[in-house]
# Entry
Amino acid sequence: MRLGLLWFDDDPKKEVSLKVKEAAERYFEKFGRRPNLCYVSPATLPLQGIHLDGLRVLSSPLVLPDHFWVGERHHSKEKEKRAPQSRG
# Structure
């Protein structure tokens, strides 16, 4: 992620999915684009990762509990290397 927004929400009554949605909405309000990636604490999401409304949610030990780091995943622009074709 080149650009992200760190969101904090420690409301124990609120579902994690709602917290992620609110963080994504704030990202859209601030940057005018929809995020496609959200990192959360492993304490929040101990699983490998999930998708919520087009948003990939992954856990990272770099994110503190109750924090949500939303942004856009940028893919490498390297061209695919093609295998040489045989002529025959």
Q: What stands out?
A: Residues 76-88 have pLDDT under 50 and may be disordered. The chain has one domain: 4-71. The helical segments are 16-31.
